[in-house]
Design a protein that fits this description.
With about 325 residues, the chain is of the alpha+beta class. The protein folds into 3 domains: about 5-100, Rossmann fold (3-Layer(aba) Sandwich); about 110-125 and about 190-305, D-amino Acid Aminotransferase, Chain A, domain 1 (2-Layer Sandwich); about 130-185. The chain has 11 helices and 13 strands. The protein has helices at about 30-45, 55-60, 85-95, 100-110, 110-120, 135-140, 165-170, 215-220, 235-255, 290-295, 300-310, and strands at about 20, 50-55, 70-75, 95, 130, 145-150, 160, 180-185, 190-200, 200-210, 225-230, 260-265, 270-280. The strands form 3 sheets. The protein has a 5-stranded antiparallel β-sheet with strand order 11-10-9-12-13. Strands 2-1-3-4 form a 4-stranded parallel β-sheet, sandwiched between helices. A 4-stranded antiparallel β-sheet has the order 5-8-6-7. Strand 9 and strand 10 (about 200-210) form a beta hairpin. Helix 1 (about 30-45) crosses helix 11 (about 300-310). It is globular. Mean pLDDT is about 90; it is low at about 1-15.
Length: about 325
């Protein structure tokens, strides 16, 4: 089924769908999208759906034009698959698609916009500021320690934890374009947690323990890079607070389907801080959302099935 040309998708049995899985793409998270998208495509095939895999980097989006009989499973990560651009295209084509819509995707991809929106709604975020790479590396914008994050990237690509002056001096200042926008945010010293929200309801809390350094791309996707404690071994009041904040963040941004909100707990004062919201969480074998779903008795195939059935246009 996976090699069927889109034009060759035939009539489906009742309850079964013609699904185009978007995967790969052109962002820095291409490899993650390929793995997660393939896992979702195989799950959809196991569920009896007719599936075509579409990698926009190789084939573009032209094969979707003029179609009104397919559902798009968006397995892309990063720009433009996760920032509202592809969502806008799918809206203009009148196609039902998975995950969040244009507005939620656009806001969540921009870390500063997310911080502002959440802060205005009363959710706790760390102190931070936006600036260009040149501005933020010319002189220390905040007191140590702090974190530099690309404003609109995911999977911790290009993230730098600056604990002290030595780290500051070692920053690879020629690595990024001078005008690339970054978020400079206070480093929160304490455990990291994450909560998946499915259909508006939080699943559980996972504590993320990193083997070395911080929860970067390597720690997220390489075998043994991190340990996930799911459900997290934590005080019940903090667990409930995490889950409540994740549900609020999901609704404040207008997310749809499944989202994931990341937190850090300040060990010094016991305060939780929202780090960011993921509108298209990873679906690889080491990803957090499938793991949380499994802990709640939801199989990977059932999770993918929910995402597909939740698909719509006008999200």
């Amino acid at each position: 089924m996976g090699n069927t040309p889109l034009g060759g998708l035939g009539m489906m049995a009742a309850g079964k769908r013609k699904v185009v899985v978007l995967l790969g793409g052109t962002s820095n998270e291409r490899d993650v999208s390929l793995v997660g998208g393939e896992a979702c495509a195989k799950a959809l095939e196991r569920l009896g759906h007719e599936v075509v895999r579409l990698d926009p980097k190789l084939a573009g989006y032209g094969m979707l034009f003029g179609r009104d009989d397919v559902v798009v499973f968006n397995g892309l990560h990063g720009v433009p698959g996760e920032d509202g651009a592809v969502q806008g295209l799918l809206e203009s084509l009148g196609l039902a698609y998975t995950h969040s819509g244009v507005n939620a995707s656009s806001v969540a991809m921009n870390k500063q916009q997310t911080r502002i929106l959440l802060s205005e709604a009363g959710l706790p975020v760390a102190k931070g500021m936006q600036g260009s790479w040149a501005e933020l590396t010319e002189s220390a914008a905040m007191e140590f320690p702090f974190v530099l994050k690309p404003l609109c990237d995911g999977s911790s690509v290009g993230v730098y934890v600056v604990m002290n002056g030595d780290d500051w001096q070692k920053l690879p200042r020629g690595t990024h374009p001078a005008d690339q926008l970054f978020l400079c945010e206070a480093y929160i010293d304490g455990p990291e947690y994450t909560v998946a929200v499915m259909d508006g309801r939080p699943l559980t809390v996972t504590e993320i323990r990193v083997a070395q350094g911080f929860y970067d791309y390597r720690a997220k996707y390489e075998e043994g890079g991190s340990q996930h404690i799911c459900p997290a071994d934590m005080p019940e009041d903090i667990k409930l607070e995490c889950m409540g904040l994740a549900a609020k963040a999901h609704h404040i941004l207008g997310c749809r389907g499944v989202s994931r909100t990341d937190f850090r707990l300040d060990e010094h004062d016991g305060s939780l801080y929202v780090l960011e919201i993921n509108t298209q969480p990873g679906m690889t074998p080491t990803s957090l959302v499938p793991e949380q779903a499994q802990a709640m008795g939801i199989s990977f195939d059932d999770l993918v099935s929910f995402m597909l059935e939740d698909a719509s246009c006008g999200r």
